[in-house]
Amino acid sequence: MKQRVITAIVALILFIPIVLMGGIWMDVLVCAFAAVGISEIFIMKKQIIVSWDFILALLATLTMAVPDSFFKFLPAFLNKYDIFYIFVMLMLVRTVLSKNKVTFDDAGVYTLAALYIGTGFHFMAAIRNAHLGLAILGYVFAVVWSTDIAAYMVGRKIGKHKLWPVISPNKTWEGSIGAVICAVIIAAIYVTLVPTGRNNAMMIVLAFFLSIVGQMGDLVESAYKRFYGVKDSGKILPGHGGILDRFDSMLFVLPVVAFMGIL
Fold it and tell me: CA 249, CA 230: separation in Å to the nearest integer?
């Protein structure tokens, strides 16, 4: 427990100032997170990090993670998704050049992971750097973190009915429902105190759905960790696991916030 607390304090001391500064610092931070995230996928798959496969997957991930303004130098007929697809094709070509030592399944995992991780972290910076973005990102953090904390505390206190025992045996329906209620309450308090430039009632209702989406992101990560037979996605954060362990819910919630036009 002491190690978890120390790691959390140190991480917040480093993380919060960068979030407050925003801009290029935030862009660099999310790209670093995305790079670590894709490396954790390779490690869980017991694949070699120093390889062409990792380089291609990393470049595909960063293509999705970097700010859209980075691609202004491209000619009009190209965009970031074209570049991403080029890396996907190269990953598929690797299945031929490696004589199927790198399989089609491997290429599929790397492609999906690059899209999932890169897009999620991209919107963390995109939301922060938008108009009133700090307030919106703070709202997202408040909803996700209150969901995680309440799910654990309520589930531990009164949880009796397993939510999805095959995937995550410690999660309960009571914890999940309590988490949604807590997220809505925290969101109501947050939007009352912090101007977001958005309709408060809409933001409170949105918290209900984002809490559910965040819990699904958590379950998705639990599913692939169980598939790969690992407890944590990585060890970069002592006592807390890896970057994917800490941002599993965010990677689902942030794109939803963006897609719903909250930016």
Answer: 18
CB neighbour list of residue 140: distance below 8 Å, 6 or more residues apart? 127, 210, 250, 253, 254, 257
| Contacts with 96 (C-beta within 8 Å, 6 or more apart), sequence order | none
- Give the DSSP letter of residue 94: H
Asked if 80 and 68 count as a contact pair (C-beta separation under 8 A), the reply is yes
Q: Which two tokens stand for residue 23?
A: 């801009």
Which pLDDT band, with edges at 50, 70 and 90, does 44 fall under?
Answer: very high
Token pair of 118 as six digits: 């890169």
pLDDT tens readout for residues 213-226: 999 999 999 999 99
Taking the C-alpha atoms of residue 223 and residue 200, their distance in angstroms, rounded to an integer, is: 34
Nearest in space to 145 (alpha carbons), one of 41, 16, 6 = 16
pTM for the complete prediction? 0.92
Residue 53 lies in domain: 1-129
The last residue of a domain, from among 77, 95, 129:
129
Q: Which helix (H) or strand (E) holds 123?
A: helix 104-128
**At a CB cut-off of 8 Å and minimum separation 6, what does 128 contact?**
19, 22, 26, 134, 137
- Of 105, 114, 69, whose CA–CA distance to 87 is shortest? 114
* Calpha distance 15→29 (Å, rounded): 9
Residues 125 and 2 in one domain: yes
